[in-house]
Write a structure and sequence with these properties.
It contains 13 helices and eleven strands. With 314 residues, it is α/β, with parallel strands linked by helices. Helix 1 (3-16) crosses helix 2 (22-34), helix 1 (3-16) runs parallel beside helix 4 and helix 2 (22-34) packs antiparallel against helix 4 (51-65). The longest helix is centred in the first third of the chain and has 15 residues, at 51-65. Bound molecules: S-adenosylmethionine (SAM). S-adenosylmethionine binds next to helix 7, strand 4 and helix 11. S-adenosylmethionine binds at residues 91, 93, 97, 132-135, 137-138, 154-157, 160, 182-184, 218-220, 241-242.
């Protein structure tokens, strides 16, 4: 079997299984099985595919046809221009989560906090938290964008923290990210660096002064009742702890916003990804607490309210 025939066979099987974007999926799986890029594949259509990679490719096609997401089969997904390892222990980073990055960096920019060390004078260290870090995509991308930031990334799942740690190492920012197994930010001020793998002590909670300049989170926000309506790729393969926020899907927001209010410095920034119908409810939580100002919601490319940002005043 040559490259052209392999690709044709993969596409045909995926089309027959009604897999969306079956052409792209077949290309990505063939690239993965051969360890080659797209340009090579299309410039060598008559190259013979050895039996071992051919078998590997067809096995991957069969798994994709049965519903496994391409990213779990190839083990990677791009986010913010960086390649992240993904395993079934972590949510596959979504393009809409890049809006969290955009909003967070824009808010820091408005405040005159330089986002690149080489574009301005070094400033004092920035303390950032990423709650529910999953693959570590937000924590790693923020550490990469903000060379003067020290990031505290939490997750309830020990398995996802392992993946996130590897992603931080891959992108050279592991020294500035502390990965902590936590329920949201519970007890983060009492982090014991020697026991939890944090490399430095947490910034001190002096006189009740708060800790963070920026907290970001893409919390689990689907309602349990939505499970039946999810694509099988999501429902049957992505970790349920990453998807479901509780019976109504909005339970996590209230706890997270309460914790953030106690842990942000004066004028500290909170940036949250929103579920497709949670904007009104989440906005209501901010409106009910006097400490929040500059509450604003940003739409995603589909016109869905996707990111809420606010500043905490003390
Ligand atoms: C929607 S995923 C987001 C992952 C990643 N930040 C991203 O944007 O791709 C939510 C993450 O929150 C974690 N999580 C769920 N409940 C949590 C809790 N109570 N405390 C901390 N993390 C939690 C899940 O394990 C999952 O990794």
């Amino acid at each position: 079997m040559d490259i052209r025939a392999a690709l044709k066979e993969g596409m045909a099987q995926l089309r027959a299984a009604q897999i969306p974007s079956h052409t792209l999926a077949a290309e990505l799986l063939l690239m993965h099985a051969l360890g080659r890029d797209r340009a090579w594949i299309y410039s060598h259509p008559e190259e013979f595919v050895d039996p071992a990679p051919a078998e590997k490719f067809l096995a991957l096609v069969a798994r994709r046809a049965a519903g496994e997401p391409v990213q779990y089969l190839t083990g990677k997904q791009e986010f913010w221009g960086l390649e992240f390892e993904v395993t079934p222990a972590v949510l596959i980073p979504r393009p809409e989560t890049e809006h969290v990055m955009e909003v967070a960096l824009a808010r820091l920019g408005e405040r005159g906090i330089k986002i690149h060390m080489d574009t301005g004078a070094p400033r004092e260290k920035l303390h950032v938290a990423d709650v529910g870090t999953g693959s570590g995509c937000l924590a790693v991308a923020l550490a990469w964008e903000l060379p003067h930031a020290e990031v505290f990334a939490t997750d309830i799942s020990a398995a996802s923290l392992e993946v996130a740690r590897r992603n931080a190492t891959r992108h050279g920012v592991a020294e500035r990210i502390h990965f902590l197994q936590r329920d949201l930010l519970t007890g983060i001020e009492n982090t014991d660096p020697s026991r939890e793998g944090a490399r430095h002590a947490m910034p001190a909670l002096a006189d009740g002064a708060a800790l963070f300049d920026l907290i970001v989170s893409n919390p689990p926000y689907l309602a349990r009742s939505e499970a039946a309506h999810l694509q099988r790729e999501v429902r049957d393969h992505e970790p349920h702890a990453a998807l479901f926020g509780g019976p109504t899907g909005i339970e996590m927001y209230q706890r997270l916003i309460d914790q953030a209010r106690d842990l942000l410095r004066d004028r500290g920034i909170l940036v949250l990804e929103l579920g497709h119908d949670s904007a009104e409810h989440v906005r209501g939580i901010f409106d009910a607490q006097a400490e929040w100002t500059k509450v604003a919601i940003t739409m995603d490319l589909a016109g869905i309210p996707r990111v809420l940002a606010a500043e905490c005043v003390r």
